[in-house]
Amino acid sequence: MLASTPVLNRYSRTLFELALKKSSLPEVALDIQNLRNLFSTLPQLKAFATHPLLNKQEAELLVEKICTLITHPLLKNFIGFLCKKNRLELLASLPNSFMVYYEKYQGIVRGEIKSAVPLSPEQIKNIQNKLINKINAKEVVLVNSLDPKLIAGFQIQIGDLVIEANIKDQIKKLKQSLAT
């Protein structure tokens, strides 16, 4: 059974709110990042944890092994709770979902910057710094991807916000204005 988004969001939001309430958000977030790294380096672990025929004894053993790598008791208890509620299939997706709430709380915004050629780290940092003021964030994290159709310049997408600073879009706008 695959993790459904509404259920996953409900569980990750609950964990986030518990960690915030218990003043242990940084520690839980660190454990969550370690859990995310564990699932990304061991893809067979995700397959095992989400397997529909995983029996209760196997699930409990898996939780016990995973919890040896977790330091914060809140997260250990939460993982045990997922096991008891037969929601262990959420465990592999929980870190990414939790980090969305954590980063939003921290004022961290993630996005993508498309360019015709790879941007240097300095160029990306400069753009990120300008975006911090523009979108009122504490930190902006951009991932650079290549789009040779852009000709020159770049296109940034952060959620619904799209910033176009490239020749392709300028030509498109010029054509539209000439057509009217």
Provide an overview of this structure.
The chain is α+β, with helices and mostly antiparallel strands. The protein folds into two domains: 5-103, Orthogonal Bundle (Peroxidase, domain 1); 108-179, no CATH class. 59% of the residues lie in helices and 16% in strands. It contains eight helices and four strands. It has helices at 5-21, 25-41, 43-49, 56-67, 73-84, 94-106, 121-135, 167-179; strands spanning 108-115, 139-146, 153-158, 161-166. It has a four-stranded mixed β-sheet with strand order 2-1-3-4. β1, α7 (121-135) and β2 (139-146) form a beta-alpha-beta unit. The longest helix is centred in the N-terminal third of the chain and has 17 residues, at 5-21. The radius of gyration is 21 Å and the shape is elongated.
List keywords for this structure.
2 domains, alpha+beta, 16% strand, 4-stranded mixed sheet, elongated, Peroxidase, domain 1, 180 residues, 59% helix
Q: What's a concise summary of this model?
A:
The chain is built from 8 helices and 4 strands. The chain has helices spanning 5-21, 25-41, 43-49, 56-67, 73-84, 94-106, 121-135, 167-179; strands spanning 108-115, 139-146, 153-158, 161-166.
**Main pleated sheet:** 4 strands, mixed
Poorly predicted regions: none
Tally of extended strands? 4
Count of individual helical segments: 8
Sum up the overall morphology in one term. elongated
Q: Span between N and C termini?
A: 53 Å
Quaternary class: single chain
CATH class of the largest domain: Mainly Alpha
Overall pLDDT level: 88
